[in-house]
């Protein structure tokens, strides 16, 4: 989509809360991945 991480955070928070704010600095972005363990 061409969005920066900061843009995504601002958009998501606004969509969920209706609050506009300014990011001073972004500390951590964590993404969960579902991993499947295959037994051989």
What would you say this structure looks like, in words?
The protein is mostly helical and 40 residues long. Helix content is 32%, strand content 0%. It contains one helix and no strands. The chain has one helix at residues 5-17. It starts with a helix and ends in a 23-residue tail after the last helix.
Which features would summarize this protein structure in a list?
single chain; 40 residues; mainly alpha; 32% helix; globular
Low-confidence stretches: none
Order of helix and strand elements from N to C terminus? H
Tally of alpha and pi helices = 1
Estimate the mean pLDDT confidence: 77
- Percent of residues in helices: 25-40%
Percent of residues in β-strands: under 5%
Count structural domains: 1
CA radius of gyration is 15 Å
Annotate the secondary structure layout.
Blueprint: H1 5-17
Would you summarize the structure shown here?
With 40 residues, the protein is mainly α. Helix content is 32%, strand content 0%.
